[in-house]
C-alpha cells in the first residue's frame, strides 16, 4: 500500500486497475498486436487475458471502490479531485487489486468509516496470501490477524492470537519479568555488598573477583515499564446549561442539497452518544451543523447560555499553525497562564521539554492530533463534538483518550470507526440513515450485521447498474439461510467446545505458572537451608511450563482446524 500518489490525472477506477501490473502488461501487448493486426498474437493474448480474469477486472475494481465508500460517479472522477483521506483509500484499493502472495498494509483503517472497515475485514479474512499490517484498531486486529508481532526495546516478540489475547499474554509476561527483575536486583545487591566488603582483603580477593566477573556476565533485565506517556483530562467547564443544544425539525445539508431532515435532538450535560451510520449518510454533516461550521438549512436550533463546544475534526489538523510550537499554540489561548503550567499540561500529551517548543511543521499526524485534543481539553468545553478523533493515534493515546472521556462530565457526541472507543465511552447510540436521525436501541454487534446487509444491498445495486448478470433472484431465502447457518454451527460446535475447554485449561495453567514464578522471586528461597524446597519449586515450574506450551500448541492446532472447516463450509 503506497503512501503517496503521483499521477493525479488518472480516473479513480483506472488508478486502481494500475495495481494489477500483469493486467496492464497484457493490455499493452494487446494494443501493440492490434496495431500490427497480428491475429495469432491477438488470439494468444485474449486467452491470457481470460486466464488472468482480465475481462472482469473493471467490475472488480469498481466493487473494491464501492466497498471502500466510493459512489459510482466517484469511480470515474480524477484522482486529483479527491482529498488526502480519499486518496489514501485509492492507494488501499490499488494494493488490494494487485494479485499478491504478500500484502503489506500500514494503518489501512485510518481514513475509513466503520462500514468500510467491516468490508475490509471481510476482504482480508478471505485473502489467501500472507498479510502483515500495522494498525491501532484493536477490534480490527482481533477480526483479521492470527498473530501479533510486538516491537519493543529493538526486539520483536511473536504472540499467538489477536490483540486481546496479546494483551493478556503480555500482561502475564510482564508480571513474570518484573518478578525476575526484582530477584536479579536482590542478587546483584548481594554480590555488590560482598565485593565492597572483601575486595580489599587479600584472603577474599579471589572470591570477590569471581563475583565481579559474574556480575558483568549477568544479563541486565529491564524493569517492566508499562506506564503510558499520556495522562490528561478535559478541564471541567466553569458553567453548565441544560439543555446545551436543542434542535427542532432540523434540515441539514450543503446549500440546496438536503442530507438530513426532520432532525430532532436535545443534548444535556452527561449525555454520551455514539453516532452510527453508513458512509455518506450524514454523520459529519450532523457534527458540523452542531459545531456551527455548517449553517442550518431549516428548522430551529437553540443553544444554552453557557454552551462551550470542543470540536475535533480532521481538517483542524491542517489548520494548525505550522510554524508555531505546541507551547505557543496553548499560550495564544491562555496568555495569562504561567509557562510552567502550560508545559505541565502539554506533558500529559507527551510534549516534553524541547519537543513542546518545536514547530508543528515537523510533526506527524498523530502528534498533530494530540495537539488538537490538548487545545480542546484546555478550553473547558461542556459539549464535545468528536469526528473520528482516533485517526493517527496509537494504542496508548487511544487508551488515555478513553479514560479522559470516561471522566468528562459534559455532553459528548462521538463519530468514530473505533468500536472499542464507542463501547467504552458512550451509553446511547444514534443512527443516521436514509435521511433521518433516530435512536438506535440495539448494540454495536447488531449494528455491524445491519451494516453488512446494507452494504450487500448497495453492492448488488452497483453490479446491477454495471450490467453484471450474476445478480439474480435465485438467492436462497432467509429461512433457508437460517437453517444452513444453524447446521453449520451444529457441525462446528464440538470443535469450538473443545477449544473453549483448552482456553480454560490454558488460563488455569498460566495462573499456576505465574504463582510459581512469584514463589521463585522470594530471595529467601535461595538460602542454603531451603535447597530441597527450591528444587521442588523449580521442578513444578518446569512441569507447568511444559504444560502451558503443550496447551498452547493444542489450542493453536484447534483454531487452525476450525479455520479450515469454516472456510470449507463457506465454500
Would you kindly provide a written description of the structure presented here, covering whatever features stand out?
This protein is of the alpha/beta class. It folds into four domains: 1-99, no CATH class; 101-226, 3-Layer(aba) Sandwich (Rossmann fold); 245-454, P-loop containing nucleotide triphosphate hydrolases (Rossmann fold, 3-Layer(aba) Sandwich), CATH 3.40.50.300; 478-570. Helix content is 53%, strand content 14%. The chain has a six-stranded mixed β-sheet with strand order 9-10-11-7-12-13. Helix 9 (163-198) runs parallel beside helix 19. The radius of gyration is 30 Å and the shape is globular. Residues 469-476 have low confidence and may be disordered.
Care to give the gist of this entry?
The chain is built from 20 helices and 13 strands. The chain has 571 residues and is an alpha/beta fold.
Please mark out the parts with pLDDT under 50 across 5 or more consecutive residues, or reply none. 469-476
Level of helix content? 40-55%
The CATH architecture designation of the largest domain is 3-Layer(aba) Sandwich
Distance between the termini: 28 Å
Task: Please state the average pLDDT score.
Answer: 83
Total strands: 13
Largest sheet: 6 strands, mixed
Broad CATH class of the largest domain: Alpha Beta
What fraction strand?
A: 5-15%
